């Protein structure tokens, strides 16, 4: 009731006291030098679009090439004021018309005062203001990388503002953005010399490097024109999209034209008008009120008893403090024989006593009396805290809030707790939680269906017994005739940390002790149970304070030998657990080639010595790696493991000359061994056998490259990490669970062969049961990575435990396998189904229902 009362008061306040809600104390702003909109004199009629402007009026439309014509302003009154500027602000509204493929190709210019300043778009769509000082040197301010997608959408107006104060040293330039429904946010505040020179279109125009400077007056040469919509009056480098209310504030005497944040917000609100801003505020309050009412209704209708139990969708988060909506769908969930089907239940007790309830599941029986062939594992899904929302890699903190538009794609605002970590048990802890008076708990039933299970609809019951009260619920599921064939058909790897502190929350065993190896094997079986079939393997380099997997030996004669004992045990353990591919870690490091840390056993002294460090000679390292490759290749061939092994060289390379040389070295010494690299740069494609692309793979040019690679028998994989950011999907703790199921569909839609995620259990000293911000190297979490980005698994007494995110991902891998099976029969039908889930890189399915329905459709087709 308190929530309802709060939002009712907020709504009443917006209706009765709009002046308060609108912020009647907004800062006074100076008059702009010029405003360019559909009412500006001499604007060509062909680019005026009625009823599409920010408040329903007309706007400037530059989308139609047939009618395109830039606006050229040659008003002496305006141009005289643009000479010798000491402070400047440019504000406006834009709706860019561009495809995902245009981002890196086009360098449009929105506004240009030649020789003085211009606004353009650089790599990946960053927007920038580039200025020329009195001394001829460039000054510039660019938007950041984090929020690029939200500056590009053509389905909404984006407000932007650049400010520059030439009388101030240090940070003196800022970039703000906002929307019709959201106030402005500061995204960049920095010296005006800190932009990316290589995104400066002048460099592309002239091929010259520009020297940057920070403070100072802008060019005092006479301004000859002001062009809107292109670089010049002829229409070169055209802006594609719509513009509205472009305003320029300029001063040649003081800092008054460098508007403050509150002044920029005043401009945004004045552009929209009083009624529009008021309506957005009321609409927001109404939405919050309706959501609070919906949650209240669910709690009162379904969760009002002393002991409560309901089935909920397996793709729905169960939060500790929000009553989950029961699954009311009458159609049973479909599954193939030989697969695993997750069913989720939520429970809540209003008793304040500390209760461990017994959980019992009856044996499923089909309608014709067939006894279910398979097993059911019961898990309590432990809550974990989410103390901060995703605010980007190396940017997420408890005190920071993500851009408001990101919150449209995030499940809820932090802090909160959600059911995530799987603990196999036949009891359910119904104790109170410290943060909430009532706590909703989750149970997962993992139904393992044997390949010889009889098809049919199976029914069973789940029961919770507290000792004083019992409650049960029926559930059902459909087993189809189809047997899941070749699971997982999606090759995938999550980079795995094997040191004991990343495997268990119990006593830490000695490194490489029998107990440690048991934890590794238990964890390997857990990884494999969720569909992982590839694993990385360390080599001769000394990493993370652990011993080498392959021990280098410096012989008395100065030559090298290698002990593969640990390497062999690793290989044998993971092969025994069902893994099919082994990826040797990068031999030349990351980005730029360098020597790596190697300790060798000195045969003369019996002591360990450093033979290579990060600063060692790269030439010597090339020689050493060639020797190592010879020994490794001979060992792989001898054991018959060469067919399972691939070699990484340089992670996310930016060093073409050395990469090519290292690739040729690898091929020379290990003929037939494929190389694999996380690299989104198409220029490296000729030198990578299995190329792992980032989200750029969605671009048409990369899809053509991927098609060409597949025609040559080369692999195409897809990877992500902290990025991509909203509105793109990711798999953080504050993302919808459906996004974890989405990713295998996304991989299929991108015509990729495999999937890589950077962290299965990279805790870096954090306790994932107590915090969620992903630590940086060294354990730093202020700032850190988005919540849950550093792990998908949780440490348990006997090794790694799964998570609800991995349950959803496994469902996606099953979908991928079924899609591949369907494509063997009808590839067009498979593509049609994929297009229902992944419509575009920014338009994808979040609602659980469609995933379940398409699973049933695939199985019904395959059954016949």
Automatic annotation (TrEMBL):
The keyword Signal applies. Residues 510-822 form the Glycoside hydrolase 123 catalytic domain. Pfam families: GH123_cat (PF13320). Residues 1-29 form the signal peptide. The keyword Signal applies. Keywords: Signal. InterPro entries: ConA-like_dom_sf, GH123_cat. This is Glycoside hydrolase 123 catalytic domain-containing protein. It comes from Limihaloglobus sulfuriphilus. The lineage of its organism: Bacteria, Pseudomonadati, Planctomycetota, Phycisphaerae, Sedimentisphaerales.
């Amino acid at each position: 009731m308190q929530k309802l009362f709060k939002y009712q008061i907020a709504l009443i306040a917006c209706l009765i006291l709009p002046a308060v809600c609108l912020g009647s104390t907004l800062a006074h702003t100076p008059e702009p030098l010029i405003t360019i909109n559909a009412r500006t004199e001499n604007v060509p009629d062909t680019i005026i679009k009625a009823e599409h402007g920010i408040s329903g009026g007309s706007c400037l439309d530059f989308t139609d090439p047939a009618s395109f014509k830039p606006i050229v302003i040659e008003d002496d009154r305006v141009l005289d004021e643009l000479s010798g500027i000491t402070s400047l602000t440019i504000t406006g509204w834009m709706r860019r018309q561009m495809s995902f493929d245009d981002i890196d190709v086009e360098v449009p210019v929105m506004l240009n005062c030649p020789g003085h300043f211009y606004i353009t778009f650089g790599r990946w769509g960053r927007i920038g203001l580039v200025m020329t000082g009195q001394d001829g040197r460039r000054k510039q301010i660019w938007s950041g990388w984090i929020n690029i997608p939200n500056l590009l959408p053509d389905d909404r107006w984006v407000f932007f503002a650049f400010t520059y104060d030439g009388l101030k040293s240090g940070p003196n330039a800022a970039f703000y953005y906002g929307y019709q429904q959201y106030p402005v946010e500061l995204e960049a505040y920095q010296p005006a010399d800190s932009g990316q020179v290589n995104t400066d279109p002048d460099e592309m125009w002239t091929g010259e490097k520009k020297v940057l400077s920070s403070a100072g007056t802008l060019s005092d040469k006479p301004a000859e024109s002001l062009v809107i919509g292109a670089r010049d009056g002829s229409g070169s480098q055209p802006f594609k999209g719509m513009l509205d209310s472009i305003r320029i504030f300029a001063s040649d005497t003081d800092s008054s034209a460098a508007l403050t944040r509150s002044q920029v917000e005043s401009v945004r609100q004045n552009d929209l008008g009083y009624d529009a801003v008021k309506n957005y505020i009321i609409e927001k309050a109404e939405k919050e009120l309706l959501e609070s009412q919906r949650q209240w209704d669910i709690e009162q209708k379904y969760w009002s008893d002393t002991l409560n139990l309901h089935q909920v969708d397996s793709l729905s988060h169960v939060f500790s403090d929000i009553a989950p909506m029961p699954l009311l769908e009458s159609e049973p969930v479909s599954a193939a024989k030989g697969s695993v089907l997750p069913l989720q239940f939520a429970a809540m007790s209003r008793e304040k006593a500390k209760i461990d309830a017994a959980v019992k599941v009856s044996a499923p029986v089909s309608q014709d009396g067939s006894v279910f062939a398979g097993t059911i594992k019961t898990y309590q899904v432990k809550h974990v805290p989410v103390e901060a929302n995703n605010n980007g890699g190396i940017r997420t903190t408890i005190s920071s809030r993500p851009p408001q538009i990101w919150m449209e794609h995030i499940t809820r605002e932090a802090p909160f707790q959600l059911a995530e970590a799987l603990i196999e048990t036949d009891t359910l802890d119904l104790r109170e939680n410290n943060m909430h008076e009532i706590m909703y708990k989750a149970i997962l039933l993992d139904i393992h269906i044997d390949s010889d299970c009889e098809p049919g609809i199976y029914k069973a019951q789940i029961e919770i017994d507290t000792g004083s009260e019992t409650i049960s619920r029926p559930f059902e599921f459909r087993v189809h005739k189809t047997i899941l064939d070749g699971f997982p058909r999606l090759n995938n790897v999550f980079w795995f940390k094997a040191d004991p502190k990343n495997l268990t929350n119990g006593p830490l065993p000695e490194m490489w002790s029998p107990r440690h190896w048991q934890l590794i094997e238990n964890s390997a079986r857990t990884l494999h149970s969720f569909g992982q079939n590839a694993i990385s393997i360390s080599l001769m380099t000394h990493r993370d304070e652990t011993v080498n997997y392959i021990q280098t030996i410096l012989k008395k004669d100065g030559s090298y030998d290698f002990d593969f004992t640990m390497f062999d045990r690793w290989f044998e353990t993971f092969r025994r657990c069902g893994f099919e591919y082994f990826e040797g870690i990068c031999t030349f490091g990351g980005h730029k080639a360098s020597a790596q840390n190697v300790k060798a056993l000195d045969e003369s002294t019996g002591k360990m010595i450093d033979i290579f460090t990060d600063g060692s000679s790269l030439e010597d390292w090339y020689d050493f790696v060639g020797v190592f490759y010879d020994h490794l290749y001979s060992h792989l061939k001898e054991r018959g493991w060469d067919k399972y092994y691939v070699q990484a060289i340089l992670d996310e390379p930016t060093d073409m000359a050395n990469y090519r040389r290292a690739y040729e070295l690898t091929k020379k010494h290990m003929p037939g061994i494929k190389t694999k690299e996380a690299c989104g740069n198409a220029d490296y494609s000729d030198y990578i056998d299995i190329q792992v692309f980032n989200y750029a793979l969605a671009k048409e040019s990369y899809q053509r490259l991927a098609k060409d690679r597949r025609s040559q028998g080369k692999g195409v994989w897809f990877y992500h990490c902290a990025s991509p950011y909203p509105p793109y999907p990711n798999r953080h703790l504050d993302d919808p669970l459906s996004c974890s199921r989405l990713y295998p569909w996304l991989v299929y839609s991108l015509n990729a062969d495999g999937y890589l995620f950077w962290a299965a259990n990279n805790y870096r000293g954090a306790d994932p049961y107590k915090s969620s911000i992903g630590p940086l190297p060294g354990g730093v979490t202020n700032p850190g990575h988005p919540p849950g980005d550093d792990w998908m698994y949780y440490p348990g007494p006997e090794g790694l435990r799964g998570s609800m995110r991995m349950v959803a991902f496994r469902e996606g891998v099953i979908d991928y396998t079924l899609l591949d099976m369907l494509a063997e029969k009808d590839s067009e039908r498979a593509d049609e189904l994929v297009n229902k889930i992944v419509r575009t890189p920014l338009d994808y399915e979040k609602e659980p229902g469609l995933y379940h329905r398409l699973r049933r459709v695939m199985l019904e087709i395959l059954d016949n």
